[in-house]
Amino acid sequence: MIDEEFDRLVDRAWPATGRVPAGSWTLRTAGGVTKRANSVLPLGEREDLEAAVEEAERFYAGHGLPCVFSIGMGATPGLDVLLEARGYRVVDPTLIMTRSLAPAVPDGEPAGPDGEPAAGVTLATAPDRRWLEVWWSVDGRYGEGVEKAARILTGVPAVYASLDGEAVGRGVPQGGWLGVYCMATLPHARGRGHGGRLLNALLSHGREQGADRAYLVVVESNTGARSLYERLGFTVSGRYHYRVR
Predict the structure, then answer these.
(1) 183-227 pLDDT tens trace
(2) CB contact at 8 A, 59 and 206
(3) N or C terminus: which one in the chain shows less Cβ crowding within 10 Å?
(4) Gap between the Cα atoms of 158 and 181, Å rounded
(5) Which of 108, 113, 103 is nearest to 212 (CA)?
(6) What domains are defined for the chain?
(7) Do 161 and 121 meet the contact criterion of CB atoms below 8 Å apart?
(8) Helix, strand and coil percent figures for the chain, each rounded to 5
(9) Smallest Cα–Cα separation from 8: which of 92, 74, 59, 52?
């Protein structure tokens, strides 16, 4: 696996609505909604690294946004050290966890076609208002940005899973990979196994669509989610973090 593979998978699964190439880097914007969609994707070599960083800083300042870099396994060599020296702080150390879909999904039930139940889970090809409300109430950190977030989510084909209007998840088919995103359960519904049922349904659906591997990203400090993913066979395959000025 090349170093950049996960950087590119995550970028494609969470597509910024604005993308400006800058050498081998991509300057991403989405109205300030989510760090990922409003950060530099810094892949490849840059001849003058400091000048490249300064260019990015001017770009984001011109958009009224903080300058944020996503530092994954394929990040430009030397960039993380330079950013630290320039006063950028580390934010949200994140794990990339993967598992094979070759064996049957543990304790799972096959997911049916779009909209049909699977272990009580419904699947759809677009998020409805309730799906967005559940996800945003758990993960929304950007004021009234849910509509901008919805444009990011629907920027690529995906399947949207929901359970009893209390828990949701998103699966993104990417060739042999299925990317799992937006796993969220309302506080009052936690501890009932909703997350496991949703994840099993998404993985089963991904396998039916031809994926043989799945990945997800989880903030390193989220020990509860990590425990669930580990029980369902996911192991750590990589890491990334953000540098925020």
Answers:
(1) 999 999 999 999 999 999 999 999 999 999 999 999 999 999 999
(2) no
(3) N
(4) 10
(5) 103
(6) 5-93 (no CATH), 103-211 (3.40.630.30)
(7) yes
(8) 30, 30, 35
(9) 74
